[in-house]
Write a structure and sequence with these properties.
homodimer; alpha+beta; 5-stranded antiparallel β-sheet; 5 helices; 9 strands; elongated
């Protein structure tokens, strides 16, 4: 089963390498990963998708939580949350008929045309992982010249203070150590 | 200066750890990173944002390219490309007046309301890095309960076959070694 983990980590040099290294050392596969800044410039949020049974995931969550600079880890799969992924697709439209067909699909699916080139267009779409898979499958026959997916990100519907890194006992302890 | 690197890598266990480890070992900071599947299940695409002068970036591109399982690396900043980032923002709207103001901002900015809760809503937006920064600044006064950004992804407008991993002399060589 796919699990989406959300990891709040101090934005320090080498921390991402430590998290990713822990997964590879233990033999856990990372299906997708995103890391970007949060409201607090000192913290980053890592969203990571991995597969495994509940027991395996519980183990890896515990191990990631042991990393000193990690403030919070959660398996969002067990919480009320909202997931999305962004995809950019450069589609070939070599004839005007092909362009028409792609544009009608774009309009039917409420997608966004980000850019029109002479012989193709760049489509921007967001959705859940399965929806993006279905869209990619639908566009394949036209010829996809280039595609980039962000991988899943997720937000809590009702986050606790700890989740968003406002309070965080662990952080206070870290502060005291410095 | 911010540089967006696009790295096409074999989807093998531990490859992401090797790339991220190379950045941290050399002291290069990763501002954002996404990794997800491509059309070919054997390949992943890493989009990585880092800062540095042109000479430094040229060096790191060369070093990443030396990794055996990396098929292609490019500094997209020098190429014709299209960049986007996805953000999910859980905004507090404790009064109906606050809800009204946020909804009017949503409509003015052509954003998407992904979910409405009793005392807040989840906004989904895509844009360039600077646009997302501006949006976050605009929503701050309402109270952001949770925010997750994917970091930048980018597609080429006119990709070569090598870029998308179709041809790739390096891959053929790798195949021969196995």
């Amino acid at each position: 089963m796919r699990h989406t983990l959300s990891i709040l980590v101090e934005n320090r040099f080498g921390e991402l390498a430590r998290i990713v290294g822990l997964f590879s050392a233990r033999g856990y596969n990372i299906e997708s990963l995103t890391v970007a800044e949060t409201l607090d410039p000192e913290l980053s949020c890592v969203t990571l998708v991995t597969s495994g049974d509940d027991r395996t995931i519980e183990q890896i969550v515990k191990q990631v939580n042991k990393l000193v600079r990690v403030l919070h880890v959660a398996d969002l799969t067990c919480e009320e949350h909202f997931e999305r992924e962004l995809v950019l697709i450069n589609v070939k439209t070599e004839s005007s008929a092909a362009m028409q067909t792609v544009l009608s699909l774009v309009s039917r699916r409420h997608l966004h045309v980000a850019e029109v080139m002479e012989d193709g267009l760049i489509i921007e779409a967001t959705g859940e992982w399965k929806q993006i898979n279905a869209l990619v499958k639908e566009l394949m026959p036209f010829g996809i010249r280039h595609i980039v997916r962000t991988g899943t990100v997720a937000v809590w519907k009702n986050p606790s203070a700890e989740v968003v890194g406002i309070a965080g006992g662990k952080r206070a302890r870290l502060g005291a150590q410095q």
